[in-house]
Structure formats: C-alpha cells, structure tokens
Amino acid sequence: MDFTQNDEVQRDSSFSLFLRKISNSYQRILDTSTPYKLQRWLFACVLLILFLYRIIAAQGYYVVIYTLGIYLLTQFTLFLSPQFGTLDMDIMEDDMEDEPTLPVNNDDEFKPFIRRLPEFKFWHNTVRATLLAFVCAFIPFFDIPVFWPILLMYFIVITYLSMKKQIDHMIKHHYVPFDIGKKKYNKVDK
C-alpha cells in the first residue's frame, strides 16, 4: 500500500492533536485542583497507603520503595529550602567578621521566605513519583532480592542527617519555612 505524504501529515497531525487534547485535559485538572490543598494531600496520602499496601502484600519491591523514599526526602528538603543561594550566604557569612553591618546594596536587604520548590510542585512530584513507583511494583524486573532492614536503616540515617543539616541551616539563618505560629493580621474594613 502506497502512502502519500498528505496521509502521513494528516496521521501525524491527528496524533499530535490527540496528545494536545490529553495534555490540555491534564493541565485543566491540575489547574482546578490548585486551591484544594488539603484534598490534594489527602489524595497523595491515599496513593502512598495503597503503594505501601502493595509492597506489604507482595513482600518485595523494597528497592522501589527505597528509591521512592529517597526521592521524596530530596523533594521535601527542596521544599524546606529557601530559593535564594544558601551556599552564597554561608560563604559570605564565613568571610565576614562578627561585627554587625548595614546593608550596602539591595542584595543585603531582608527578603521574604520563598521556597526552592513550591508546595504545588512538591505535591505534583510526590503524586507522579508515587504513581510511577506503584506501576513499578507490578513489574517483576524491579523485584530485586535485598535484605530490607539494611535499606531501612540506611534510609533512617540519611533522613536523620539531612534533616539535622536542614534544621541547623534554618536556625543559623533564622528562617521558618512554615506559616504555623506566625502572626496573622486581620483586614480592617472601613
């Protein structure tokens, strides 16, 4: 059967149109879910619970859960980190003496806390990674035999060290990434 170039272009454009429709639908779902923070995180927790149930029921896929745990720990660390260059702050602080100084330019002035990884992207990455891990938990190739207590201990040590470093950094630079306990001002209607 001989295909002309027009048939290929039409087939290609119909496939790209199909992908565009799927992409637009997916983006619409994400956009409508943005204001529902509690519901989004409950959905992510349900996915994680289903994934953990799959791991427990299969008695395997420990490498998959370990990989997901490390990825989520990395995402959480980025979520807690400020967007501005913390390495630059550490280097500048080491170079400076203990004397108080006034701001010389705009870079030295106070800036509000802006996350390196916004909450919505953190949630989106969590859901995507959990869904991918859930799919991998059904593929026998990923059921690598390992002694899971070693992976668990290693994960606990990595979590402890990274959270200790993050908390020390938060104390050193006097920032709190959460708005819990911060003073809130009410709007005054005139």
Automatic annotation (TrEMBL):
It comes from the Eukaryota. This is Protein RER1. It is a multi-pass membrane protein. One of its GO terms (biological process) is retrograde vesicle-mediated transport, Golgi to endoplasmic reticulum. Keywords: Membrane, Transmembrane, Transmembrane helix. Belongs to the RER1 family. It is found in: Membrane. One of its GO terms (cellular component) is Golgi membrane. The chain crosses the membrane at residues 38-56, 62-80, 146-163. Involved in the retrieval of endoplasmic reticulum membrane proteins from the early Golgi compartment. InterPro entries: Rer1.
